[in-house]
Design goal:
Elements lengths: L1 E9 L5 H9 L5 E5 L5 E9 L2 H12 L7 E5 L3 E2 L1 H8 L3 H9 L20 E2 H11 L9 H18 L4 H8 L1
Helix pairs in contact: 2-6, 3-4
Length: 173
């Protein structure tokens, strides 16, 4: 087992009673921080085989507290090319050249919002591209956190439209 560290956004700041219930539900390995706007985060160090297993077990434990849910995983995957360059120790111009196809083998990841005034990219996709297309030894991005966030957000949306994600995937099969 490995200890995995991660942060989760809750759907609301827990009351004192809910804090007690979280602890009783098995979240003694997580700290709760609240913000003035009513938001709350869990900072967790959970032992599990994989990061996904760790996140899933915390989500399961949070669901034991009526009304409290995990809303998202904090993973900082959305970046501008400048932010990605800074994380990677490269110049922003270098990444802009890759994105425009002026350098490198092409097929650089597309922005998540191609029509926006400020374009955001997936840091995980940029890292995967740099490792695969360029063969560079750049630090891995944690794709499992991105995947966990997508799954949690899909569950939140499914709850909002009162649909089970399992029902969708059964029909799609």
């Amino acid at each position: 087992m490995t200890d995995w560290s991660f942060e989760l956004e809750l759907n609301h700041a827990p009351t004192n009673d809910e804090l007690d219930e979280l602890y009783e539900a098995g979240l003694d390995d997580c700290d709760v921080t609240t913000s003035p706007d009513g938001g709350a985060r869990l900072s967790c160090d959970r032992a599990a085989e994989t990061m996904l297993d760790a996140v899933a077990s915390v989500v399961h434990d949070v669901r034991k507290v009526p009304g409290l849910r995990v809303a998202s995983v904090v993973h900082n995957d959305d970046v501008t090319l400048g932010e990605a360059a800074q994380r990677l120790g490269r110049s922003a111009q270098n990444l802009h050249q890759f994105a425009k196809g002026e350098r490198g083998p092409g097929r650089f990841p597309k922005p998540k919002n191609p029509a926006g005034p400020t374009r955001f990219y997936s840091y995980a996709e940029i890292v995967r591209w740099m490792r695969g297309a360029l063969g560079l030894d750049v630090p891995e991005s944690n794709l499992e956190l991105v995947l966990a966030d997508m799954l949690i957000r899909a569950g939140v949306l499914a709850d909002a439209v009162q649909r089970s994600p399992e029902r969708f995937f059964q029909r799609a099969a």
